Amino acid sequence: MSSERMGRCLFALLALLAPRIALPAPDEPRPGLYEMTWQTGAPQREEGLGDAVRQERRCIDPRDPAALFPILSDRALRGCRLVPRTGTDRAASYTLLCGNGTDRRGDAHWAWEDDGGLRGELNVAGDREHAALHQRLRGARLGDCSD
To answer: pTM of the prediction?
Structure first.
């Protein structure tokens, strides 16, 4: 085989494989389109009852805890917010503060994994009116959000 023909074959092979070659994961989370999975549950549920699982593609800023934990918009947590405790570009932890007259308390954290995935958990303690609950998240950045 001539070197010119071999070069064309190599170029064609690289052109076929290029879309399959993964780009390195970003070093830190950025706003964009994410494939998110949330698992929400309560530890005191009867055995055999699974957690609620929700998956969706959503444009989010992973540094915004309200975007990461949609359970915060539930009426049982109305008046609650996550206050930063510690944080870096790759991880953060929060304390749940509720100004709604309840005794609810909790904490949350998220971390940017080496594989480019986002992982986190929100834990809310029960009070005299509400059961304890948790929301776990997994996410993968798919790209930029379209305008």
So the answer is: 0.74
